[in-house]
Amino acid sequence: MLSKLALLPLAVPTFAAIHEKLSTLPYGWKESSHSVPDNSTIHLQIALSYSNLDQLESRLKEVSVPGSPQYGQYLDLEEINKLFYPSKESAEVVTDWLKDNGATSISSDGHTIWLETTIELANKMLSANFQLYTDDFEDKLRTSQYSLPDDMIPYVDFVSPTTYFGGPKAHEQADRQEPSTNDDEWEQSCLRLFAVQNRDNQIEEMALLTPTCLQKLYNIGDYQADPRSGSNVGFGNFLNQSTSYSDLEQFEYLFGISPQNFTVTLLNGAIDNQDPEVAMPHEANLDIQSIVSLADGLPIEAYNVGGLAPFIPDLLMPKISKSTNEPFLQFYTHLLSLPNSELPWVITSSYGDHENTVPKYYAKRICNMIGMLGLRGRTVLHVAGDEGVGAVCLANGIDGAAQFTAQFPATCPYVLAIGGTNSFENVEAWNYSSGGFSNYFPRPWYQEDAIQTYLDEHISPEAKDYYTSNKYANFAGRGFPDISGHSESPLFPMVLNGTIRANGGTSAAGPQVAAVFALLNDARFRAGQPAIGFANPWLYANARNSLVDVIRGGSVGCYGTNPQKQQPITGAGIIPYASWNATVGWDPVTGLGYPNFQGMKNNALGR
Description:
Blueprint: E1 15-21, E2 30-31, E3 41-48, H1 56-64, H2 77-84, H3 88-100, E4 104-108, E5 112-118, H4 119-126, E6 131-134, E7 139-142, E8 145-149, E9 156-160, E10 169-170, E11 173-174, E12 191-197, E13 203-209, H5 211-217, E14 233-237, H6 245-254, E15 263-267, H7 282-294, E16 300-305, H8 327-337, E17 346-349, E18 351-354, H9 360-375, E19 379-383, E20 407-408, E21 416-422, E22 428-429, E23 436-442, H10 448-458, H11 461-469, E24 477-480, E25 483-488, E26 492-496, E27 499-504, H12 506-526, H13 536-543, E28 547-548, E29 554-556, E30 561-562, E31 567-568, E32 579-581, E33 594-595, H14 597-604
Helix pairs in contact: 1-9, 6-7, 7-12, 8-9, 12-14
Cofactor: Ca(2+)
GO molecular function, one term: serine-type endopeptidase activity
Main location: secreted
């Protein structure tokens, strides 16, 4: 039972400028017809400000740029905490403020403070207006703005859930095969015919990609990883998904892969649901089955991340979301709390959201946390998404101007962002591979030459002027993706609740590339070298010639249709001729290209 609030005189805060404010509701959201009593309990979390963030990038350069005297000399948990941990004063000052304002059940790990209060007191404390909003599928309790007292601003990064309406989406392209320009050239040993159940529950025969074919595509050769090398992979399961043990076992048997298990960590109230009558672990299964297809034998860790209810719903409000839909914060907070001995060397996630729906404070917090993982020698991958140039294509603002849609966390400069390719013999860009330029994060140092070359030599002056003058794209922003993996044509076979499904998209590409980096770490560890760590500086400066450049095809978007469902998007921004082309060198469809493991391994080992 929740403890009752004591009847104490509450402090009256003096507010500074508004801390976060939405200029307009995110696309698809509106005020709900439901209401919530003011005395309802709401759960909030407060992210405390990190220290010394001005040193993050310079420290990351020292350990990540090949040739640096400190290259590969990664920090441990104690060193990271000493450098960036929020001051002890932060938790004390903020906790006192919360108590003075009637909050209860206050707890903290030093990075974040969790609390309970009522909606009425939260509104007073934050000068907010919490109410229900709906996208016609679920209701969420949010506020369009909130403020902080002057004396709290130095200690608080942000409060959530407040202005973040979005939730991570799996970038999963299922059951729809894009035509390839060269299907006749496929080696038949790479394909197997399966009776596949599609999304309409109809059975159709499809030729699907095999793990053997993936190994050939990435030039794995006869390389065999050593499970004792220390290399491993971790991935996040969000949206109540759990990876199926029995489906993995069936997948391994189907393709002659040596049986192996995986471990599961449950975070924030998550469960490990293995009931095939209830669970539909599309993304969770796709991730692990993609990984074992290339990095069989290396240890794998699945992190199931649950959500904490922002308030207690009742039977009158059945559609209200029971999750904060902000699992990235929970996920990375947990990872950063682990000692290096328990932290996976490669971490991948196939979830993301439209950058402009993620509050800037939140996005920058997550990005800085990922940068800290890079300082600890970890390679963090996020997929670029499956919307091409964009789908909704609306900028923030009352006028609803059209704009290309960037995807977060792929736009974080400390992430290795993974785009998508199509076909096999003559690989081309997948036309729904998301890519472009961030409106939140500036172009990072390691991309400067690659993007400037693209802008100077590989996009027409007319297109550049058209995109710039209409503010469709921010060419000064961080470009994404960095590299790519196979996403379409042919699709990837996945076992789901005992049946074969066809799957693809960048959700398949991300874990494939993560497996390649796990193999690279395996090779380096066995040679007595440190992990690759934050890979982007190495890729752009040293390893780009060991990637396979993709110069055919391109991406499209912003034509008013959801590319994943092929359904019209009411009110979407329309941008004629919106597209990116795959070009020589880096481009905003496939990045630098896709992995050639043997070439990357030789480069990584200094051969």
